[in-house]
Specification:
single chain; Farnesyl Diphosphate Synthase; 13 helices
Length: about 250
């Protein structure tokens, strides 16, 4: 219950509203994806990974408790997320539940977030180009954001065109989100962000800012945010809050 943007669960709730999904069902999927996100942060902070001491302005889990507790905390959150998705309270249709489980498993696993994390670890002290950095971040950050956006469509049995539109929207805001993160890592302050800064530089990792420079990176984030808005055209005013999310992502201070 610590502070945090709660972006991924927010996206689940708001995309679900587009298709008239019952709020209780959407909340369960929202909680599930936030558990996966929280688990990834707990494990990311471990000494064998990013070795961070601060997260959301508080000591990281392994610092407050110990490494064993942090590992088991992450394991518990990950498995609990799938327990929630498999419950009939999440949806009465077993096919819908199975699709949610499958899509989250792909987004969180070797073909998604974990795969991106592995590539990120291997990227230390290597001269990567923008294409490789983009692929890493599409997996590491973008995969869960994509699931958050399409989960509402899955719950609401949406048409394929609507699902594709939300996938395209998620792709653009996911990259914009990571570019903004890279900018904040360079320009932000530890006190405001609640976590360590200049981490990529210290780890010898290339990111959008180190490759593009601050001004070009900022323009690219803006371009992606504006592009994301175009994918929401078919939803009319019902998607106004999602349009605001795209603006929030590039204008946020932490």
């Amino acid at each position: 219950m610590s502070s945090g943007k709660r972006l991924r669960p927010f996206l689940v709730l708001k995309t679900s509203e587009l298709f008239g999904v019952e709020k209780e069902r959407a909340l369960r999927v929202a909680a599930s994806i936030e558990m996966v996100h929280a688990y990834s942060l707990v494990h990311d902070d471990l000494p064998s990974m990013d070795n961070d001491e601060l997260r959301r302005g508080k000591p990281t889990t392994h610092k407050k408790f110990n490494e064993a507790v942090a590992i088991l905390t992450g394991d518990s959150l990950l498995t609990l997320s799938f327990e929630i998705l498999s419950d009939t309270l999440t949806h009465s249709d077993a096919n819908i539940r199975c699709e949610l489980i499958l899509e989250l498993a792909k987004a969180a696993g070797a073909l998604g977030m974990v795969g991106g994390q592995m590539m990120d670890l291997q990227a230390e002290n290597k001269n990567l180009n923008i294409g490789v950095v983009t692929r890493i971040q599409r997996l590491k950050t973008g995969a869960l954001i994509s699931f958050a956006c399409i989960s509402g469509a899955i719950l609401g049995r949406a048409e394929k065109k609507d699902r594709f539109a939300l996938q395209a929207y998620a792709h653009d805001i996911g990259l914009a989100f990571q570019i903004k993160d890279d900018l904040l890592d360079v320009t932000g302050k530890k006190k405001n962000l609640g976590k360590a800064v200049k981490k990529d530089k210290k780890a010898g990792k290339k990111n959008f800012v180190s490759i593009l420079g601050k001004e070009r990176a900022k323009k690219q984030a803006e371009l992606l945010a504006n592009q994301a808005l175009k994918h929401l055209k078919s939803f009319d005013s019902k998607a106004d809050i999602l349009r605001e999310v795209a603006r929030f992502i590039v204008e946020r201070k932490k």
